[in-house]
Amino acid sequence: MRENTTEVVVGAAVLAAALGFLWFIVSATGLSGGTAGMELKANFRSAEGVSVGTDIRLAGVSVGTVSQLDLNGETYRAEAVFSIDEGIAIPDDSAAVVASEGLLGGTFVELVPGGSFEMFADGGLIQDTQGAVSLIQLLMKFVGGEEA
Prior knowledge:
This protein is an alpha/beta fold and 148 residues long. It contains two helices and eight strands; from the N terminus they run αββββββββα.
């Protein structure tokens, strides 16, 4: 009888730990559905390093994630859809910049707020974008002596 009780307690602890890991994975990867905020769109020349789930940051603080990333077959530009957290207002002259956390760090999209008093509505298009800068291309220009 005592062995059965121990097995039940250990089994319950293992199940609780597994559910905790599952919750952590879902919350960390953004698979929990959508956020109840707004969506913004942006087109990039290069979205290298950006994928679905990539952080959207404003002043270094995560305010959303990339929810969709596709290639436009006509313009050959990367079309991204951002899910912005509820309660975050973004000026309509803001810029979206693909940035990295350093040489070995991850990639994120930085929103650089503009000075407009008008805010983006749900589904708005960010006009001012800057794509990813390839570190390899920069090094090749530097080694080759070309001007940037």
